[in-house]
């Protein structure tokens, strides 16, 4: 079955700490991978995406993610978090070609940053 | 400004009273989709549409209907709402078949009593 797992439900860090949020997926075939962020009271917006090529992708606000095909993972990282990174983070996957239209989201990771 | 709009933003209703949540985008996107967001479950796709008059079920379509008569609009219809449809609903649009970035609306918080 197609699924996305985000094992960290709630992460609490202090400012300047490094961040890594896990994302593992189960999806047959070639995939596209996304990280979306939802700031408090706001709608989801794209942080970064991977379609093909360099497995290390850089997004907005200093975030990056690495696609490791052998581990079916797409973990999100940031070397030094800020209080403004407090938000909920969602990993998502869809297939390429005919299966591109069905998109699976993970359950989300709530990130709280202590000032 | 490029955006996806949803109306209403908040709605409290009673069981069985038909309702429609509207979604409109001004980016000429072919692909549109509806999601519901529930605590601990993330976003789950309800229905999606790859173009006008083309719609298909997502993972949780039961109790919902959609239509896509115009490219810009993709309303979500609850014919007979039930309390288990209390949720936060998001509409999204994307240029090709959903393979690219999705642009989300601000959300509609629905409570069914």
Please, could you describe this protein's structure?
- The complex is a heterodimer of chains A (115) and B (113).
- Chain A is mainly beta and 115 residues long.
- Chain A has strands at 3-5, 10-14, 19-21, 24-26, 31-38, 45-50, 56-58, 64-68, 73-78, 87-95, 103-105, 109-114.
- Chain A is 0% helix and 52% strand.
- In chain A, strands 2, 5, 6, 10, 11 and 12 form a six-stranded mixed β-sheet that branches. In chain A, strands 3-9-8-7 form a four-stranded antiparallel β-sheet, with no helix packed on it. Chain A has a two-stranded antiparallel ribbon with strand order 1-4.
- Chain A starts with a strand and ends with a strand.
- With 113 residues, chain B is an all-beta fold.
- In chain B, strands 2, 4, 5, 6, 9, 10 and 11 form a seven-stranded mixed β-sheet that branches. Chain B has a four-stranded antiparallel β-sheet with strand order 1-3-8-7, with no helix packed on it.
- Chain B is globular and about 35 Å long.
The overall pLDDT of chain A, averaged over residues, is 92
| Total helical elements of chain B | 0
- Give the amount of beta strand of chain A, in percent: over 45%
Radius of gyration of chain B: 13 Å
Say how many strands of chain A there are. 12
Task: Describe the protein's topology.
The complex is a heterodimer of chains A (115) and B (113).
Chain A: E1 3-5, E2 10-14, E3 19-21, E4 24-26, E5 31-38, E6 45-50, E7 56-58, E8 64-68, E9 73-78, E10 87-95, E11 103-105, E12 109-114
Parallel strand pairs in A: 2-12
Antiparallel strand pairs in A: 1-4, 3-9, 5-6, 5-10, 7-8, 8-9, 10-11, 10-12
Chain B: E1 4-7, E2 10-13, E3 19-25, E4 31-38, E5 42-51, E6 54-57, E7 65-66, E8 76-78, E9 87-94, E10 103-104, E11 108-112
Parallel strand pairs in B: 2-11
Antiparallel strand pairs in B: 1-3, 3-8, 4-5, 4-9, 5-6, 7-8, 9-10, 9-11
Summarize the structure.
The complex is a heterodimer of chains A (115) and B (113). Chain A is an all-beta fold. Helix content of chain A is 0%, strand content 52%.
